[in-house]
Amino acid sequence: xxxxxxxxxxxxxxxxxxxxxxxxxxxxxxxxxxxxxxxxxxxxxxxxxxxxxxxxxxxxxxxxxxxxxxxxxxxxxxxxxxxxxxxxxxxxxxxxxxxxxxxxxxxxxxxxxxxxxxxxxxxxxxxxxxxxxxxxxxxxxxxxxxxxxxxxxxxxxxxxxxxxxxxxxxxxxxxxxxxxxxxxxxxxxxxxxxxxxxxxxxxxxxxxxxxxxxxxxxxxxxxxxxxxxxxxxxxxxxxxxxxxxxxxxxxxxxxxxxxxxxxxxxxxxxxxxxxxxxxxxxxxxxxxxxxxxxxxxxxxxxxxxxxxxxxxxxxxxxxxxxxxxxxxxxxxxxxxxxxxxxxxxxxxxxxxxxxxxxxxxxxxxxxxxxxxxxxxxxxxxxxxxxxxxxxxxxxx
Length: 396
Fold this sequence. Notes:
The protein is of the alpha+beta class. The chain is built from 23 helices and 9 strands. It has helices spanning about 10-20, 30-35, 50-55, 90-95, 120-125, 135-140, 145-155, 160-165, 170-175, 180-190, 195-205, 210, 220-225, 230-240, 245-250, 255-265, 270-275, 280-290, 290-310, 315-340, 345-355, 360-375, 380-395; strands spanning about 25, 45, 60-65, 65-75, 80-85, 105-110, 115, 130, 160. The strands form 2 sheets. It has a 7-stranded mixed beta sheet. Strand 4 (about 65-75) and strand 5 (about 80-85) form a beta hairpin. Helix 7 runs parallel beside helix 10 (about 180-190), helix 15 (about 245-250) runs antiparallel to helix 16 (about 255-265) and helix 16 packs across helix 19 (about 290-310). The radius of gyration is 29 Å and the shape is flat. The relative contact order is 0.05.
């Protein structure tokens, strides 16, 4: 853990509460992140002041939508959530109802002392995710905590306490019923994390994966681990073998995301069709799919071959042809980009060469575009005229 310092703007808000005779504690995930040296997305102050007193004290504060017990106070350090103790009259009562011990730490703004009744700082130091109370009660109270714990482990490289891991399966049924947005948010964070493979394995062992995405394969986590940090690409790797549109629609993913994952998996096993195509047909296919999707499709196939250790000859041949198409497509896109940036028009070529409009002008423009693609410093009228003079001499 890094050296701790309360942002001055947050301390000032807390001190206003103290000056009014109220307790004020910095708590929650924001405090956890500060202790880890990570910039928090928001900070949270817990107080014994009633909600009305908080609103009276901070004229710029507004009630947080869908959370009538909390006030958002703007500050130079970002939004600060100020809320009365959620349970009981003491901060210890509040901490006892948090999810994990690493989130159940408090820093007293007035005395600058720590309150850590559940050993959260020690768990933070060792990178351990442990429930404040019974792990079973923790998950039963809020099933999203199961995904949150897996997400913290995946994104931070922490370990999950054995009791909490054993309780993960209790969230299976409930996660299928609660609003999709928080489920999707946690899943996306897991998929894009450095520990995505381990996170997906934990979801698989607990049965959560089969509840949210029936049909995922046993090697999907290892496959995802070999893919770049691209959401749709990793979703495609994870969801092979599932009814992808049904799964993604149920989780409320956006239409563009669903369509791209569907495209990647639709062409995933098209070896026979690709090998039967003519070079011109493959070029048309590459242009239709696009550079980004074609590169992702190739990456998915390569990762699958490495994961399974099996790549049939037909698959190797198809992959080779796709890679050739990708190289050609990227080359043509770079040339088109260079041509659009060329500081020399067809009219300039006609004027310099003293020729009529025709194929020779097009060839000259293509030559100049290739020159600046290789060396952008040549893209000036004087340099281009010199290049054009040399080209004209060589092709006379």
